[in-house]
Amino acid sequence: MRLSDDLSDRIERAHGRRVVGVDALSGGCVADVRAVRFADGSRCVAKIARAGGLAIEGWMLGYLTEHSRLPLPTVLHCEDTLLLLEHVANDGGRADAAGERGAADDLAELHSVTRRGFGLERDTVIGGLPQPNQMAPTWVEFFRDRRLLFMGNRALAAGALSSAAFGRLEHLCARLDAFVDEPCAPALVHGDVWSGNVLVRAGSVVAFVDPAIYYADAEIELAFITLFSSFGDAFFDRYRERHPLRPGFFEVRRDLYNLYPLLVHATLFGGGYGAAVARTLERFVG
Question: Any idea which fold 3-86 has?
Fold first, then answer.
């Protein structure tokens, strides 16, 4: 029996509708992504991971649905190797200026969701890599231990970061509070807002997908948005109207916060990401 036949049977059992077509979709770092068509004309998106790991993605989408009004696909079925999501019609384009302003409103509202302590009640994942979220009372402690040092060790073990660069990372972490201040409150973040995780239709953002959630300094979300130019000036102009940025974000903290996604990408993909980490570290610790 072909893989598509196996998958169709699984989806029919999980969702209770007859499948008439399963087509490959682009995207998905750790899972196959398929567009599914049902006999009644409805559609969904199926993610399949033989090694597992999809239950946490379903849980994160459910958490965001429960705690925020961020536009998200509805989870239709969730198990560790199969995740069925609402099909959100999109054209694969980029947000226009109005769409960026709408996305700024969405994320500003998300970042208004707060709690005591940084982290989350359970660990999550980013790009298939573990993302530890043990709660910490301060942002400096959390960002140092759960993000920079944890992922730095992963990058070092993967051969994506040199021992010299890791030594600079440790030196930076020892004096991190000289560069990073404490936000007024922990903010719920999506955690992985690059353009591939932002669904757009006719210039408007219709959904955010593939989250990597936790409670953080909201600026780490904004920094990541600049790293791959997910949004531009219209986004930031509108976001500032909702949440004024603290002095020093663009000058200092943006590059420091982007060390984390750069370490993630270095661990996953190697290439020039380790060199980008090293250049940032040399700027701050020589």
Answer: Phosphorylase Kinase; domain 1 (3.30.200)
